[in-house]
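This protein record is not my work; I was only asked to verify it. Take the sequence as given and treat only the tokens as open to question. I have pasted the whole thing underneath without changing anything:
***
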Amino acid sequence: MITSAGLWISHPKLLLERIGGMTVLERQLWTLTGAGIKKVAVAARPPSPDQAARLRLPEGLEVSWLGKAGAHPLDGSAPAAGWVGSGGEMMGVSTPYLSLSGQHFVRPETLRYVITAPYKTHASFIDHLDLSVMQVVPFRTEDMVTAQRVPLPAGSSVFLDASDLRQGPIMDWLLSMGFKSHDGFMARHFDRHISLAITRAIIETRISPNFMTVVSCLIGLAGAALFLLTPSRDAAAAALVWLHSVLDGCDGEMARIRFQESRLGGDIDFWGDNLVHVSLFACLAAGMARAGHAVAPALGLAAVVGIIGSATLAFWHRVEARRKGPAADVPSTDASATAAALARIEAILAQRDFIYLLLAMAFLDLTYYFLWAGAVGAPLFFAIMLGAGKAPAGAQSAAKAPGEA
């Protein structure tokens, strides 16, 4: 696996331009780190102390600068001559290494694939504009080597046009990172388009993903509380819960686009969602009881117990996966099947398409039947999770709980 990289800079001034809530340089270094790179040599002059103090660099990444320090760092002057030595090695890193264009953004998963693939010769990866995006130098040689040209898949990279940096295809490319593979149907085709529009509007502000989590949670709790009032308020209450669901997508989008994903953020998001869901059914049951439905408290209790049980089990699997870490032994076939089943079930837990059922039933004045659906569905879902989690003795679960921001 390649762990060293060189960042080749054609336009040094571009490095400190901001897009998507961080500078181009920060995004390049975070992308490389996310792919598994440990050491980066940047072919430009080092930033000034003031500039360096403002940069948010990945922890543990070793960064070196190949240009000579001067009075005007990152001013557009060329890097120091001889940054590529004889034999193909780059000054500051040794073979094998990856050379990445500083005028392209690349998906971390694309980079990860490139640096882990086996190579028998040098390779140059080309975008749809026939521009070189990155090169792999797998070994040192004194001979002239013609690199193998490899076209990159569509959408795996984007060219940074300095004249149109914050609009058009570059920003659209960044926002596409907001989608998640386990989004439900309505989330993917409707909610995400709304939340991404909001994210686009605030991505350059100081609003943090955790702040958005708290805001969306408060809106959801306000919507749940409205169900305590007369049934005539149910439509407004459901609309607020739906708004919570939409805004709840913004925190993850911002975290993925800005590389601000964290364990704490994922936990806050996870328990915030479940707090809203518990409050929703508790308040809905209390409101229905006030309206004369004698069985409503029992229905609400059943739904709340099912939600808390499912959330607790999902979080326990998350903690177990963290405790074992990537160095855990390879699980048995039975344990792998169990983990896969739990992962699928927990992915369903992360989807919020049921909000649209609540909206429809609230506008049709049928929220009492939604309470019944929760009273049956939540405990059933919990029972399915319990059944899927009964792995053989000594088996290890590798399921990843949803909500990791």
Observations:
- Residues 296-324 form the longest helix (29 residues).
- The first strand starts at residue 4 and ends at 8.
- The two ends are 27 Å apart (CA to CA).
- The chain has two domains: 4-170, 179-388.
